[in-house]
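Worked example

This section walks through a single chain of length 221. The input is the sequence exactly as stored; nothing has been trimmed or padded.
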Amino acid sequence: MRLASMSIPEVVREIITRNRSIYDCMKMDLINYTALAVKIQPEIERVLGNSVNLNTVVVAIKRFADSFEIKDQVKDESVLKNARLSLTDGIMDIRFSIKDSNEMDPMAILDKFSKITSNYEFFRVSDSFRFLTEDMEDIRQIFSSVSERDDLFSTGLAKIRISIPTSQNQSDVVSYVAEVLHANGIELVNAFFSQDNIIIILNEKDSSRAYDILHSDIMRA
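Given that input, the structure is written out below as tokens.
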């Protein structure tokens, strides 16, 4: 997920979108906004790096809930209108904590990466750094030499890159995509925002069907 220049409403949307049970309860209007705000306030503060007012979080949750009603009113027009998709299988998610990073030289790692492949994504999230890249032995060796953690690599994944017009709200797209795929029995593993794209991560076994579902949704727009 993005870190720099994020607003409280954006962080709220991302947290709720990632939590399927909260998201579904909100869709069914079963959420107490104040209780939810208390629950997610610590995570928001970790992401933003500073304290946030509880009432501000409550308002952000309420506005996100209200957006569902708006989407229902315009559901004949896809949120993915004018979006472009690309699918890459064989993806590996490499996660290392901020603490781990203190023992690494990020510039040296990125330099080694660039000599092996240019096909990777790099994100900083609230408590860690993430690399999304092709699952290659050379890539594994870069990180195995600096960390012995067993959970460093997550494999068997695929990514779908969604390019949308700059006027479109990225959080709206992620929540819409999660809802469409969930309705078809496919769950997201994660989602990341870059400046120009949205990267959704899912299990490789679901990737082709997910791509077809989203592509069909774009074509009907």
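What to look for: Residues 54-73 form the longest helix (20 residues).
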